[in-house]
Design a protein that fits this description.
The chain has 239 residues and is an alpha/beta fold. 49% of the residues lie in helices and 11% in strands. The protein is built from eleven helices and six strands. The protein has helices spanning 17-31, 41-60, 66-78, 84-99, 108-115, 129-138, 151-154, 161-171, 185-194, 222-227, 234-237; strands spanning 5-8, 120-125, 147-150, 178-182, 198-202, 214-216. The protein has a six-stranded parallel β-sheet, sandwiched between helices. The longest helix has 20 residues, at 41-60. It starts with a strand and ends with a helix.
Length: 239
C-alpha cells in the first residue's frame, strides 16, 4: 500500500540528543561542582543514561509517574536523598545547560523539505508533550508536524503497538499507509513493523546487521526508500 505519512522519532533521529546531552552534562557538572565526583564526563553521562533507562522502565510498567521517575533518577545519580523540590530544581538546572546545546541534525530540515509535498508528517516519541512540543518549537520545526504524540500522555510507550496505532489514528490513516523513522532498531523499526507500519531504522553510526529491517544511515536516503527507488546505495543502506 502507498505510504501517505511519515511518523518520526525525535531524539537522535532529527534532533542530536547525544551531543546536547554530553555538552549539557559537562556544563552542568561544572556548575554544580560535581566534576570531581566522577572519573570523566563520559562516565557521568553513562551513569545518567543507565539511570534514565532504569527509571523509564519503571514508568512504562506503571509503577511511578513521569515526574517522579525524573526525581528518582536525580536521587540515584547523586546517591543522596532529596525532597521533590530539590530534585526538581537540580533537574531544571541540568535542563537549562542541556537546552543551550540543542541542534537539529544537518540532514533533518533538508529532508523534511524534500518530503513536504508528498507526505504528511507526525511525531511519536517516548517522552512527554511538555518536552517535545517545546523542543520542536525552539528548533523551529513544530509546524512541520500535524500531530505530536508522546508516551507520557498516551500512557503507553514504543514498542507497544498501541503507541503506533494511536499515532496512526491521530492522522486518520491505516498503519499500512504510515512509515516510522527512528534510531532504535527494536523500539522504533521493529516495533513499527510489528504494529503494521513500515519501520525504518536510522542507523547513523552504520553499525549494520539486522537484515530484516529497512535501514538507512542518513536521512537523505529516506526519499528514495519511501518511493521504492533503491538504486542508489542499496547495498550500504540495507542488511
Amino acid at each position: 500500500m502507498t505510504i501517505r505519512a511519515v511518523l518520526w522519532d525525535v531524539d537522535d533521529t532529527i534532533f542530536d540528543y547525544a551531543r546536547a546531552d554530553h555538552v549539557g552534562m559537562s556544563a552542568h557538572l561544572t556548575a554544580e561542582g560535581l566534576v570531581d565526583g566522577f572519573d570523566s564526563v563520559d562516565r557521568a553521562l553513562r551513569r545518567w543514561r543507565e539511570l534514565t533507562a532504569l527509571h523509564w522502565r519503571r514508568f512504562e510498567a506503571g509503577g511511578v509517574d513521569f515526574q517522579e521517575q525524573r526525581r528518582d533518577r536525580v536521587r540515584d545519580f547523586l546517591a543522596r536523598p532529596l525532597t521533590a523540590a530539590e530534585a526538581d530544581g537540580w533537574f531544571d538546572r541540568y535542563v537549562s545547560h542541556y537546552e543551550a546545546a540543542w541542534e537539529l541534525f544537518p540532514d533533518a530540515v533538508p529532508v523534511l523539505d524534500l518530503l513536504a509535498d508528498d507526505y504528511r508528517h507526525g511525531i511519536l516519541s517516548n517522552s512527554s508533550i511538555h518536552n517535545q512540543d517545546r523542543k520542536l518549537r525552539v528548533l523551529g520545526v513544530r509546524d512541520r508536524f500535524e500531530a505530536v504524540l508522546c508516551a507520557a500522555e498516551l500512557g503507553v510507550a514504543k514498542p507497544a503497538p498501541e503507541a503506533f496505532h494511536a499515532a496512526c489514528t491521530a492522522l486518520e490513516l491505516r498503519p499500512s499507509e504510515v512509515a516510522y523513522v527512528g534510531d532504535q532498531p527494536d523500539i522504533d523499526a521493529r516495533g513499527a513493523v510489528e504494529a503494521g507500519l513500515r519501520g525504518i531504522w536510522l542507523d547513523r553510526a552504520d553499525t549494520g546487521g539486522r537484515p530484516e529491517l529497512n535501514r538507512i544511515t542518513d536521512l537523505r536516503q529516506l526519499p528514495d526508500l519511501l518511493s521504492g527507488d533503491t538504486r542508489f546505495g542499496a547495498p550500504s543502506t540495507f542488511g
